[in-house]
Design brief:
Blueprint: E1 11-14, E2 20-22, H1 23-31, E3 48-50, H2 52-59, E4 62-64, E5 75-77, H3 81-86, E6 95-97, E7 105-107, H4 111-118, E8 123-125, E9 132-134, H5 135-145, E10 150-152, E11 161-163, H6 164-171, E12 178-180, E13 188-190, H7 194-201, E14 206-208, E15 215-217, H8 218-228, E16 233-235, E17 244-246, H9 247-254, E18 261-263, E19 274-276
Antiparallel strand pairs: 1-2, 1-3, 4-5, 6-7, 8-9, 10-11, 12-13, 14-15, 16-17, 18-19
């Protein structure tokens, strides 16, 4: 072809000067503004006629496969090269589009392997819930939502992994989950320590006063209640041999305590001496 300088495909002869031009080259020239014979440059809107003899001669030329440098050993008439390149059992070195339409161009010999093991659009099943879909979707969006996907317990408990759909229930039982004290004392602790805390440590646990047996929260019993408990043993301020006396009996005890400091029986007539009752 006098235009593309390649073996002419569908060769045509110019009527004005008899040169060979590919039909596709003719169409390009006529579609341009120039629209004149590319050789004699004199005839505008030049005409051409198909030349079947030259077409047969060109198509009978022996050629190598266009993928010869890649390793293809095919050679044959030019007429058959399209079949060689286009058929699925033809040239294994020809780059073809992925049949899953992932957009990748790949040599035909690698197509099966690509489609089955590499293509992001190959069909696969989720290994956990067995839902089907494209590999890219299953490994991406689906994996973020799969109810059967094993997730590590965030508390790193001995269970190890739990299906996503069971995680909420697991965390309600996990012994390493941090929870609030059930008595609302404000403390956060691992569930495994809750019973011990509620029974022996929580300031709001229910206890009985060991003296009067009134019941209340530990913090109250050991605080305000202790300041008022009528049965609380108090040390005699005189350190007498009695030792301790219930708060409710202290006033009566001091009226009898032999070490209580009292006034002389004659204080009303002027005696100012104070002494222990026993004296």
């Amino acid at each position: 072809c006098v235009v593309c300088h390649l073996p002419s495909r569908d060769p045509h002869l110019t009527e004005c000067c008899g040169h060979i031009i590919c039909k596709s080259c003719v169409d390009q020239i006529k579609a341009s503004r120039y629209n004149a014979c590319p050789m004699c440059r004199k005839v505008k809107k030049f005409q051409t006629v198909s030349n079947k003899q030259i077409d047969r001669e060109v198509k009978s030329l022996l050629v190598y496969c266009t993928n010869k440098e890649k390793g293809c050993e095919w050679q044959g008439e030019l007429n058959y090269i399209n079949n060689h390149l286009g058929n699925s059992d033809g040239c294994q070195f020809e780059e073809v589009k992925c049949s899953n339409e992932c957009g990748k161009m790949i040599e035909r010999r690698y197509l099966t392997s690509h489609v089955e093991t590499e293509c992001p659009r190959r069909k696969v099943n989720c290994q956990y819930c067995h839902d089907g879909g494209e590999h890219e979707f299953i490994e991406g969006q689906h994996k973020e939502e799969c109810p059967k996907l094993p997730l590590a317990c965030p508390n790193k408990c001995e269970v190890g992994t739990v299906p996503r759909e069971d995680m909420e229930a697991h965390r309600k039982e996990c012994q390493l989950e941090i929870i609030n004290c059930s008595s609302d004392c404000g403390k956060k602790l691992e569930r495994r320590h809750l019973c011990s805390h509620v029974e022996t440590e929580c300031p709001r646990r229910k206890v009985n006063c060991q003296y009067c047996h009134d019941r209340g929260e530990h913090e109250f019993i050991e605080g305000q209640h202790k300041e008022e408990c009528p049965k609380l043993p108090l040390a005699c301020p005189n350190k007498c041999e009695v030792g301790t006396v219930p708060r409710e009996d202290m006033e009566a005890h001091r009226k009898e305590c032999p070490l209580e400091m009292i006034q002389c029986d004659y204080h009303n007539v002027g005696c100012e001496v104070r002494m222990a009752r026993k004296d």
